Amino acid sequence: MNWKAFIFDMDGTLLDNMAFHIEIWREFLHSLGVKLDEKEFLQRAVGRTNADILRDFVNPDLSDEEIRALGKQKEALYRSRFRPLMREVPGLTRLLARAKQKGIRIALATSAGVENARFVLEGLDIESYFDVLVTGDQVTQGKPHPEIFLKAAERLSIHPSEGLVFEDSPLGLEAAHRAGMASIALSTTYPPEHLMTLPGVLAVVPDYDTLFLRDGHLGEFFHSFSG
Ligand SMILES: O=P(O)(O)OC[C@H]1O[C@@H](O)[C@H](O)[C@@H](O)[C@@H]1O
């Protein structure tokens, strides 16, 4: 447990907003004449980039330019509605501040675009804690491919095994595992029983406050953060 860096997913991990994203997707896809099945979306879309989601649910032949334009519309709608509701997952700032004090480096690895990343980091006032930002528009293969986590490790100048990932989605947890990283799963979007048996998952917690209360080795590691 000699982690040198913490790598955070964003949606569903820094803030509990995936249900809101899905609601906006439903409304947006409806305007394009596509009916969204929430169960299907949870099974195969959460954690993926907008390009992957739009090609899967709208049309596999969409051009990069069409993807950019559609993604821009969907995310503008999301940001305009979500702004007043933004709240961190309990204990996040405490964990970030303690990690920083202990010299642990911090990265964001989100499938969302850079505008959404700035919107969240500024909205939660946590931008200064992050040493590295990797967003969905900087990768060629989205989660569950490990590229985003490997890129984060490279920019943090760590070996992948020295990074601990915080994630809420099974696809993101798979990406972390394929990158050679252990993870903590947040049960904000999926029930704990969907997450606890996934490879590489050390613990499933509803929020960060709970991490400080755990027993065992992991508990000892995080207790040292709770002073
Ligand atoms: O990788 P993250 O931070 O969980 O982000 C994934 C989400 O990114 C958002 O931008 C998409 O609109 C969501 O539908 C997607 O699930």
UniProtKB/TrEMBL annotation:
<keyword id="KW-0413">Isomerase</keyword>
<keyword id="KW-0479">Metal-binding</keyword>
<dbReference type="GO" id="GO:0008801">
    <property type="term" value="F:beta-phosphoglucomutase activity"/>
</dbReference>
<dbReference type="InterPro" id="IPR051600">
    <property type="entry name" value="Beta-PGM-like"/>
</dbReference>
<dbReference type="InterPro" id="IPR006439">
    <property type="entry name" value="HAD-SF_hydro_IA"/>
</dbReference>
<keyword id="KW-0119">Carbohydrate metabolism</keyword>
<dbReference type="GO" id="GO:0016787">
    <property type="term" value="F:hydrolase activity"/>
</dbReference>
<keyword id="KW-0597">Phosphoprotein</keyword>
<dbReference type="Pfam" id="PF13419">
    <property type="entry name" value="HAD_2"/>
</dbReference>
<keyword id="KW-0378">Hydrolase</keyword>
<dbReference type="InterPro" id="IPR041492">
    <property type="entry name" value="HAD_2"/>
</dbReference>
<dbReference type="InterPro" id="IPR023198">
    <property type="entry name" value="PGP-like_dom2"/>
</dbReference>
<dbReference type="InterPro" id="IPR023214">
    <property type="entry name" value="HAD_sf"/>
</dbReference>
<comment type="similarity">
    <text>Belongs to the HAD-like hydrolase superfamily. CbbY/CbbZ/Gph/YieH family.</text>
</comment>
<keyword id="KW-0460">Magnesium</keyword>
<dbReference type="InterPro" id="IPR010976">
    <property type="entry name" value="B-phosphoglucomutase_hydrolase"/>
</dbReference>
<dbReference type="GO" id="GO:0046872">
    <property type="term" value="F:metal ion binding"/>
</dbReference>
<dbReference type="InterPro" id="IPR036412">
    <property type="entry name" value="HAD-like_sf"/>
</dbReference>
<protein>
    <recommendedName>
        <fullName>Beta-phosphoglucomutase</fullName>
        <ecNumber>5.4.2.6</ecNumber>
    </recommendedName>
</protein>
